[in-house]
């Protein structure tokens, strides 16, 4: 049985990718910004639910769930500003931008996804949804903290949220490649 590594997200566009690239440029004056593995600006997205390895046969049901949930929500905007950091189990530091506006709507959608997908047997999230945009990953905590101090409050901008997207993720030596499998427009 063929399986795909899947997640559900919203695309991040508007002025955010341009401002994100300026963050990378700003960090170059801090020193060796190559210590952070940056997300490609074309891959910026905000994950609502990670599904992991999923049978291909589940795609029609996932599409129905996405479209049903999307039909219950109007398009909206999110505003991103400020930097944060958290550690993973592998001790990697994840650098992220905070969702300042539109957080409540993202939380509602993420909760509906978690509920509906849980009914299918997909494990529920053990923690509350925390809306954030991953920007990069670093193994050097001191460099990441310096970046946080220099750029806290940085305005990443506003982006319209008009659809939910089911993505396939493939990890390649050059980095992750995401392919949209289903797009469900918000009402």
Question: Any chance you could write out the topology, listing elements then pairs?
Answer:
Layout: E1 3-11, H1 16-28, E2 36-38, E3 45-55, H2 59-71, E4 76-87, E5 93-101, H3 103-119, E6 132-138, H4 141-151, E7 155-161, E8 163-172, E9 175-185
Antiparallel strand pairs: 1-3, 1-8, 2-6, 4-5, 4-7, 5-6, 8-9
Q: Note the run of SSEs as H and E.
A: EHEEHEEHEHEEE
CATH architecture: Alpha-Beta Complex
**How big is the Rg?**
17 Å
User: How much helicity do the residues have?
Assistant: 25-40%
Quaternary state of this entry equals single chain
Q: What is the strand arrangement across the widest sheet?
A: 2-6-5-4-7
Structural class: alpha+beta
**In DSSP terms, counting alpha (H) and pi (I) runs of 4 or more, how many helices?**
4
Measured between the Cα atoms of the first and last residue, the distance is 35 Å
According to CATH, the homologous superfamily is: Cyclic phosphodiesterase
Integer tally of domains = 1
Q: Whole-number average pLDDT?
A: 88
According to CATH, the fold-level topology is Cyclic Phosphodiesterase, Chain: A
Number of strands: 9
User: Mind summarizing the main beta sheet?
Assistant: 5 strands, antiparallel
Indicate the overall shape. Answer: globular
Q: What is the CATH first-level class name?
A: Alpha Beta
**Which regions have little confidence, pLDDT < 50, spanning 5+ residues?**
none
Strand fraction equals 35-45%
């Amino acid at each position: 049985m063929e399986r795909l590594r899947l997640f559900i997200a919203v695309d991040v566009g508007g002025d955010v990718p341009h401002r994100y690239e300026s963050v990378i440029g700003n960090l170059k004056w801090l020193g060796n910004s190559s210590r952070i593995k940056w997300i490609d600006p074309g891959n910026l997205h905000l994950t609502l639910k990670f599904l992991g390895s999923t049978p291909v046969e589940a795609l029609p049901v996932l599409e129905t769930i996405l479209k049903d949930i999307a039909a219950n929500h109007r398009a909206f905007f999110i505003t991103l500003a400020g930097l944060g950091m958290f550690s993973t189990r592998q001790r990697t530091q994840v650098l992220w931008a905070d969702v300042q506006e539109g957080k409540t709507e993202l939380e509602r959608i993420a909760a509906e996804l978690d509920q509906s997908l849980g009914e299918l047997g997909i494990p529920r999230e053990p923690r509350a949804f925390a809306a954030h945009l991953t920007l990069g990953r670093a193994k050097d905590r001191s460099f990441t903290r310096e970046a946080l101090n220099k750029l806290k409050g940085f305005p990443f901008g506003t982006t319209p949220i008009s659809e939910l997207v089911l993505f396939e993720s493939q990890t390649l030596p050059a980095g992750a490649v995401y392919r949209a499998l289903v797009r469900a427009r918000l009402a």
